[in-house]
Amino acid sequence: MLTRRDLLANLVRVAATAGMAAVAPPTLNRALAASPDEEFIRKAPRARFWASVESAGGDCRICHPGLTRGGGRGHRHEANLVQCLLCAQNCAIREGQRGRCRVRINIRGELRSLVYGRPVAVHVDPIEKKPFYHFLPGAAAYSLATAGCPLSCKFCQNWELSQAWPEDLRAVYTPPALVVRSAHARQAPVIAFTYNEPTVFAEYLIDISREAKKRGLRPVLVSCGFMNREPLAEMCRLLDAVKIDLKGFSASFYRSVCGAELTPVLTTIKEVARRKVHLEIVNLVVPTLNDSERMLRELIAWIAGEVGFDVPLHFSRFHPDYQLLNLPPTPVATLERAREMAMDAGLRYVFVGNVPDHPGNHTYCPNCKKVVIGRTGFFLTEMRLKDGRCAFCGQRIAGVWI
């Protein structure tokens, strides 16, 4: 018997192959009574980063930051309505319904998390797979994910997790301390929150990170960057590194292809950089959608001007998936041209991603131009660093090496 997830997967693939319009996911706000597992939902723990009329204490600016105190007319709110303040979708959620991410639900006026303690994917990966190229090269990353994402990117390569309902995926309750013990037992010095959008399990991420710090492990985040300032600030106090997917440099691209907005992502990138958390940026270059020379130049100029020249920037190759099976893989020449433009603009560490054995996978010393970190796929072939400096000329190489 096909599950809804299997059926949706088949429909998406058939539609994309036939050149039909993309199949829309099921409506996000299905009623609580329609859930196949009411007990699972009933036991869901209370979430953080939300507000209701009662919790706001009469200050409407909590949910409506553009207001001035005392301004505007009074508004009569629907009973038990809550506002999720975790991500930049800022979903207003009626009782018994969920936000855009599918994993935060309003139960009698209280927002709850359906994914706390419920990882659905756990692997040990090379840190380079995230990709982090200038953070503990060669380290093993204990990687975990839940269901859910606030975005709906048509090119998502982990869509079976990101676009899933949490009750559709098998999970065993795993408390934060057990995650950390498991990572330690696997001799993984890094715990990576990855695969889906980890913002949706922010409470779980924060608790795991606190436990990880006690054991000397390094928590890192692989994210779309679409969170609000308060949860981002709390996460940044605990995280050792953040990788942000800057999916394009166009508001219309974000709206039509990702179901989101560009500005909150740019705000997140600047805030991570301001807080001195190790940052890397990935741009997945999708043919015909975000690969124009103008868009690439604007993206590069923004990074150089707002973040700096030392941030590692990865131009990654798109492979057909999810709702964009009709598009070809990114030509390698496009990635090479993007890398060349970024280096001409002064960026020091620019990479070609998803092209194994390409010379653009290596880290080069910005001074003597020699390879200081060689890579084949996700694996190191050479390390020519000494105390964070080029072993050939002594130039400092930006990154976290110990």
Q: If you had to describe this structure to a student in words, what would you say it looks like?
A:
The protein has 11 helices and 18 strands. Residues 1-5 and 7-36 have low confidence and may be disordered. The chain folds into 3 domains: 1-27; 31-113, no CATH class; 121-352, TIM Barrel (Alpha-Beta Barrel), CATH 3.20.20.70. The protein has helices at 4-18, 38-42, 53-56, 159-162, 176-185, 202-214, 229-236, 251-258, 263-274, 293-306, 332-344, and strands spanning 50-52, 82-84, 92-93, 104-107, 110-113, 121-126, 140-145, 190-193, 218-223, 241-245, 278-285, 313-317, 350-353, 363-364, 371-376, 379-383, 385-386, 389-390. The strands form 5 sheets. An 8-stranded mixed β-sheet has the order 6-7-8-9-10-11-12-13. Helix 5 packs across helix 6 (202-214).
Largest sheet: 8 strands, mixed
Poorly predicted ranges: 1-5, 7-36
User: How do the helices and strands follow one another from N- to C-terminus?
Assistant: HHEHEEEEEEHHEHEHEHHEHEHEEEEEE
Total domains, how many?
3
- CATH classification, class level of the largest domain: Alpha Beta
Coarse structural class: alpha/beta
What is the overall pLDDT average? 89
